[in-house]
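Reviewers asked in the last cycle whether our approach scales beyond single polypeptides. To address this, we selected a multi-component target totalling 456 residues and predicted its structure end to end. The input consisted of the following lines:
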Amino acid sequence: MRPVAVIGIGKTAFGAFPDRDLRSLAVEACRKGMQDANVTPSQIEAFYLGNFAGPSFVGQNHLAPYIAGAMDITGVPCTRLEAACASSGSAFFHAVSAVSAGLYDLVLVGGVEKMTSQPTPVVTEILAGAGDMLGEGRAGATFPALFAMIARRHMYRYGTTREQLASVAVKNHANGAKNPQAHMRKVITMEQALAGKPIAEPLTVYDCSLISDGAAAVVIAPLERAGEFTSRHAKILGIAQTSDHVALDEKDDITTFQAVKDAARKAYQMAGVTPQDIQFAELHDCFTIAEIVATEDLGFVKKGEGGPYALDGCTCLNGPRPINTSGGLKSKGHPVGATGVGQICDLVVQLRGEAGERQIARHSLGLAQNLGGSGATAVVTILGAA
Amino acid sequence: MNPGSGTIYTETLIYAAPQQFVADAPYQLVIVALDSGKRLTARIAGERVAIGDAVNFAEYRDGIPFFSKA
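The resulting structure, written as structure tokens, was:
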């Protein structure tokens, strides 16, 4: 297996774009990624696309060749992967695996979702399909409800508080307000976050990520060839994807994501680093509780200490380990199929020192954690500066 | 099949419902730790429940198991 590098990144803004269709978003991100990598569409040897529910949201199937064809990429394998909100994290994992194994050199990986063309109850119903529709889904579970039940249990077992949950939203909005590509560039106060409209108790609207349109893309290549294209590449030091049961009621302990723990252990081992070495991270804050649980499962803090860790400011831009300097899913937005590759782009921007007023001081080793459903898929990636 | 009784493992009160259940909102969704050792996602009929409360199976409505506080 050979080392692999990210040689180009591209993103659309995340937001609600009534005038944009799914394909145009994906094409924009992919073209930016190829331009950033100094490669042309004719050089791309394979295209992997992460997309959760294009067929449900916009009625379009066969998305990978549909998007690739719009860039005149034909005659190569074009494959869509679906793993709920980890769809493009999974696409990235499989693309890296293929390049690492020597199947291809230059591979384009995209992620896209077009969500805002449907009313919220319909979006809620489509998203619920990432759970078990014969069990929790039939009983009326929504994704906010599943994470609300995780939060309730975490609060019960570890004493996690509403203030600790809300502090994640306040911090991520503060970061997102400084990100020109974020969906909701709005600073919020603790008082606002605590007084938000209830969605599924104990979660309010401020605990939930956004319904967004958007796309992200990266170009990857063998590390030994990266220098042919750019000096601003990032090294993929460790990567793993793992799985767990889909239904929440089939998990032994819902206050932890076993798939995240498993993926993290493998990725740390591959990279030869420990959790304490990680300087900054993009974590899957689909709900505030998810960021808190992730900091525990990734080994940044001990189990049950994620709440105080968030509230104490350890994860702010100027804290000892900044988390979600992009604004996270909470403020940057969560076009679900674009999120995994979007996180990789966000890490690379920091690694290159190109994050502008969000730039952090220590930025040579970062981690991305992408979660599908209520934890049935997890992808953990560790990137290092060139 | 009667799932029997159990205790509340976790719960939430849903305000933002999927299209199909908009008319039911707000409604309480729970995971019951059944006396049989399994867990089951269910709804609550009647009084609100909290983690640790004992509950009994009440009925199926459209295939959805409903429990009530014991």
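Chain A is about 35% helix and 20% strand. We regard this as preliminary and will revisit it once experimental data from Aim 1 are available.
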